[in-house]
Amino acid sequence: MPWLTDASKNDTVTLICDRVWLAVVQRSLRPGARLKDEDLAEAFGVSRARVRQALAVLEKDGLVSLVPNRGACIAEPGVAEARDAFYTRGFIEKRLVERLCALATQADIAALRDHIAKERAAHAGQDSEAVIRLSGEFHLLIARLTDAQFLGKILRTLTTRTSLITAMYQTESTQTCGPDEHEAIVNAIEARDAARAADMMEHHLHHLESALQLHEAKSPAVDLRAALGLSDAAAQ
Amino acid sequence: MPWLTDASKNDTVTLICDRVWLAVVQRSLRPGARLKDEDLAEAFGVSRARVRQALAVLEKDGLVSLVPNRGACIAEPGVAEARDAFYTRGFIEKRLVERLCALATQADIAALRDHIAKERAAHAGQDSEAVIRLSGEFHLLIARLTDAQFLGKILRTLTTRTSLITAMYQTESTQTCGPDEHEAIVNAIEARDAARAADMMEHHLHHLESALQLHEAKSPAVDLRAALGLSDAAAQ
DNA sequence: CAGCGCAATATTGTCGACAATAAAATTGAC
DNA sequence: GTCAATTTTATTGTCGACAATATTGCGCTG
User: Fold this and answer.
1) Is residue B233 part of a domain?
2) pLDDT confidence of A215, banded at 50, 70, 90?
3) Nucleotides of D under 7 A from a protein CB
4) CATH code at A56?
5) CA-based nearest distance A65→chain B, Å
6) Which of B57, B85, B151 is nearest residue A57 as measured by Cβ atoms?
7) A94 & A179 share domain
8) What percent of chain B has pLDDT over 90?
9) How far is the CA of B22 from the C1' of D13 (A)?
10) Domain coverage including residue A12
11) DSSP string for residues in A15-81
12) What pLDDT is stored for residue A218 in this prediction?
């Protein structure tokens, strides 16, 4: 998976960052999960200094929150940040597909269709990790096909944060939307219908956002209280 | 200078990052300047591990390029990256001023005019460092006034990279454009003329870009401590 | 038996030292 | 005199150890 990370570098810190990033995208690391650097150090077989660097860059990326003398944990975006993330995604991705309508080659469209095929395969195979990951990578692929390096990196950050957000605020009914909406977007791109493509993208993102319950709720509290079947009034 | 950095943290690494960032914006650290971590460590009075973390995050930000066994130096964006940066800035800032036309309060416009006044003062006072810094901060102010957190951070990265680019590719004739174009943009915003505001912004950025000669350029190394503006304070 | 304070533990933050690699300088040969 | 190989130096990469701080468990007291 040679992504738009600076992949050529054998740098260990980059590897750690990518690994954590992947774990977050695949929901194997959930928001609020503690990251003890010693554990990470042993897990990667390196010293703590290296994981510390990785933690620093991940913090700047907004993926982990790093409180001074209390260690690091996966970030828990608030509702304001969630709305901002979706707003920014719409802001960027709408223009991106518009631009792609004008510039896309046949090879690009083939790549998009190929990606959707992978999504369908993962969907059929019940591989939920792959489903989630591929769903995000679709948007990154769009960014890459437009030759917009910066926007691509930005979008990587944004999709990652979206993963965090959906992990926090999704209702259990909500599954990740299937590849159908993605396919509708690709269809619009192939038809060179910029307006429809932008509409499809906006609809898609709005669909994602509205499937969440964006209220103030602490994820650990919700998990605990709901899991134990306690009423809301009692605790704390 | 309480910027949209996570300012509240007393974290040393954040301080180092901001200091280097400021030095780059003010042109006291030019592209290609070597950053020997031991020098930085002594300059800031801390150990090398700390500056190494800072270097890691700065590298991910694209501000320094960090080649495996040869140390760190201020990044030297290529022509492709330069064009991408300007494209992305236009992409974002055009929409930003459009949005600001709809949402700006009187206080916002007053803040913008106040900022332009500062720009004029620095311009009159021949304080070229302040001129350059304030010129960039104008765009960041626009981002902040629109309540777009993400776009603000993105724009901070982009303006920084623009600083690098202009430092590399500017002709000696080129001065940083005065506050006039900024004022024109604010006038359009105050008139709630979204189309004109977007045009003004596009023109402004295009003006900046076209004033450069996009060929290869060299840049010499400079003294670290003087460039970072710390006058023997921390050295001892 | 509940609440509070204190000690024990665990985890983080910071640092200096050692090994590995690249750049520079010296020396030798043609 | 110049080029090349080798030694020398400087700088980076990595690590383990020590100090500071938060968390946990225990015991004491009311």
Assistant:
1) no
2) confident
3) 11-17, 21-23
4) 1.10.10.10
5) 12
6) B57
7) yes
8) 71
9) 28
10) 2-76+217-227
11) HHHHHHHHHHHTTSS-TT-EE-HHHHHHHHTS-HHHHHHHHHHHHHTTSEEEETTTEEEE----HHH
12) 52
